[in-house]
Design a protein that fits this description.
Blueprint: E1 15-17, E2 20-22, E3 29-34, E4 39-45, H1 49-68, H2 71-87, H3 89-100, H4 104-124, E5 131-133, E6 141-148, E7 151-155, H5 163-175, E8 178-182, H6 188-201, E9 208-210, H7 215-227, E10 231-237, H8 240-249, E11 256-260, E12 265-269, H9 275-287, E13 297-303, H10 307-319, H11 339-354, E14 358-361, E15 377-380, H12 387-390, E16 397-403, H13 406-414, E17 418-419, E18 421-425, H14 429-438, E19 443-446, E20 461-462, E21 465-466, H15 473-476, E22 479-486
Parallel strand pairs: 7-8, 7-10, 8-9, 10-11, 12-13, 12-18, 13-16, 15-16, 18-19
Antiparallel strand pairs: 1-2, 3-4, 5-6, 6-22, 11-21, 14-15, 17-20
The protein binds NADP nicotinamide-adenine-dinucleotide phosphate.
Length: 494
């Protein structure tokens, strides 16, 4: 089925270095498949180390002029980019749906979410205040100014092809940094369209460079940036093993790092919770993007007194979900990204059932729709020995277990190396205070399943990484403080 866009030029087939839409130096290309049909519908350059080098050369050359631009001018460019993203939300949504698989309404929602970060950082750009420090000795003036860190390398995953890259590019540009970026192999088209609109908004040549690469070449491209001393910041969203590799390899050039890594979020339902609200919150958090979100509840822990009543509500909601390709306007759940993702979900379900879990809904692939579709699934009697309790399933599987008391629930919730998001539902205000302190996570949803916002600091602790995206803290990740100490001012002067 052809991809019809109101602006056909937003379907790009080259990557972008130093203001030029170009081929890879080696001339290689790779195909982009629609995960619903597994058919190639576009292709992009397959970059190698030479393209990565050209990108960083361009970003380095463009840095002095971009950081010297008044913050208000950078802010205006970002504001224009935001306007263009909103104006072309339908086209961008179509690109996301086609290359990533999520239903169109959800894809357009992602564009709005991505744009909200651009709007936010357009406003933050002009508020990068420094400090005047009361001097402890006479005759000195002590101040701290904030400066852009320099060239930034941004590496992003496929699950939110617009939002993950927008919330790196926007604060970096706002801070006065220039960028080299690599989107995921599966979803480069949305990123390229975003860059085309950034160019249209007035981002100068060299300031934002995006290279596309197949999985086979990803490490070769990123290695160039890891080793280059001119790249002063690495911002990565993706899996924990790759994040750990990048942290190790960037140590020789001591880059500033933001690592937004994997999660294994607990979702706790207490005996005093509003069960309908909890079931609705879980549906929003768990089944959005077919369960392929880093903040997805991966372990659902329900108090034994309300377990059956909650599971009944959950099964009713899950069974009513409609699965289908993005071309089906009624579809609420699309395909998974590729066969590796389906195999992981199948493996997790098989392992859980073999160890005693019971399937209450779904449980199988949906080959009639395509090889990448999987039924929305509810499992009960899940326990900590099962693979799906230990690693994120990244698919539409709600894995439920029961607990007897709060202490057990908290202990089980924290029994993971990860610490990205956690959720709990209760009406007890004292319990809210206790759990807010006790749960080991960077973000906590309290009687709320949809926690992401450009106004909030998004990020994890423990093996989920460090650094925050969004909020006033998001700009700090792309700036450093420079302390200025001026002496010889004479007595009484500071
Ligand atoms: P991934 O395999 O770690 O890939 C992420 C990015 O890193 C892709 O661009 C990938 O390129 C690249 N990459 C892979 N191996 C690399 C290497 N050796 N050197 C340099 N770059 C490399 O993760 P994913 O499967 O795409 O995404 C899912 C993961 O992201 C999940 O764990 C999820 O929880 C996490 N995530 C976290 C957040 C958060 O904010 N904490 C948000 C969204 C997703 P290729 O595509 O070519 O492999």
């Amino acid at each position: 089925m052809p991809l019809t866009l109101q602006r056909p030029d937003l379907l790009l087939s080259s990557h972008y270095i130093d203001g030029h839409w170009c081929e890879a130096v080696g001339g290689s290309r790779y195909d982009i498949e629609d995960p619903a049909r597994e058919q190639a519908f576009a292709s992009v350059p397959d970059a190698d180390a030479r393209d990565a080098q050209a990108a960083v050369d361009a970003a380095h050359a463009a840095l002095p002029a971009w950081r010297a631009l008044p913050a208000r001018d950078r802010s205006r460019i970002l504001a224009r980019w935001n306007t263009l993203l909103l104006e072309h939300r339908q086209d961008l949504g179509r690109l996301i749906s086609r290359e990533q698989g999520k239903p169109l309404a959800e894809a357009v929602g992602e564009v709005l979410y991505a744009a909200s970060y651009v709007e936010w950082f357009a406003a933050e750009a002009v508020r990068a205040y420094g400090e005047v420090i009361p001097a402890p000795v006479d005759g000195r003036r002590m101040t701290a100014v904030r400066e852009p860190v320099g060239v930034v390398a941004a590496i992003t995953p496929w699950n939110f092809p617009a939002a993950m890259i927008a919330r790196k590019i926007a604060p970096a540009l706002a801070a006065g940094c220039t960028l080299v970026a690599k989107p995921a192999e599966d979803t480069p088209l949305t990123a390229l369209a975003l860059v085309a609109l950034a160019e249209e908004a007035g981002v100068p040549a060299g300031v934002l460079n995006l290279v596309t690469a197949s999985r086979a070449n990803a490490a070769a491209v990123v290695d160039v940036w890891l080793r280059d001393m001119r790249v002063r910041k690495l911002t990565f969203t993706g899996s924990t093993p790759v994040g750990q590799h990048l942290a190790r390899e960037s140590a020789t050039t001591l880059k500033k790092l933001s690592l937004e890594l994997g999660g294994n979020a607990p979702f706790l339902v207490f005996e005093d919770a509003d069960l309908d609200a909890a079931a609705d919150g879980l549906m929003a958090a768990k089944f959005r993007n077919a369960g392929q979100t880093c903040v997805c509840p991966n372990r659902i822990l329900v108090h034994e007194a309300v377990h059956d009543a909650f599971v009944e509500r959950l099964v009713a909601r899950v069974s009513a979900l409609r699965v289908g390709p993005a071309s089906d306007p009624q579809a609420q759940l699309g395909p998974l990204i590729n066969r590796r993702a389906v195999e992981k979900v199948e493996r997790h379900v098989r392992d859980a059932v073999a160890k005693g879990a019971r399937i209450m809904a779904g449980g199988s692939p949906l080959p009639a729709l395509g090889a990448n579709f999987f039924q929305p699934t509810v499992l009960v009697d899940v326990d900590g020995r099962m693979e799906l309790s230990c690693e994120e399933t990244f698919g539409p599987v709600a894995a439920v277990s029961r607990f007897a008391d709060e202490a057990q629930a908290v202990a089980e919730a924290n029994a993971t190396p990860y610490g990205l998001a956690a959720y709990f539902y209760t009406r007890d205000v004292r319990r809210i205070a206790r759990l807010s302190a006790a749960l080991e996570a960077g973000m906590i949803g309290i009687n709320e399943g949809a926690i992401s916002s450009e106004a909030a600091p998004f990020g994890g602790i423990k093996a989920s990484g460090y650094g925050r995206e969004g909020s006033r803290h998001g700009l700090d990740e792309y700036m450093h403080s420079k302390y200025l100490c001026q002496g010889e001012l004479g007595p009484g002067q500071d």
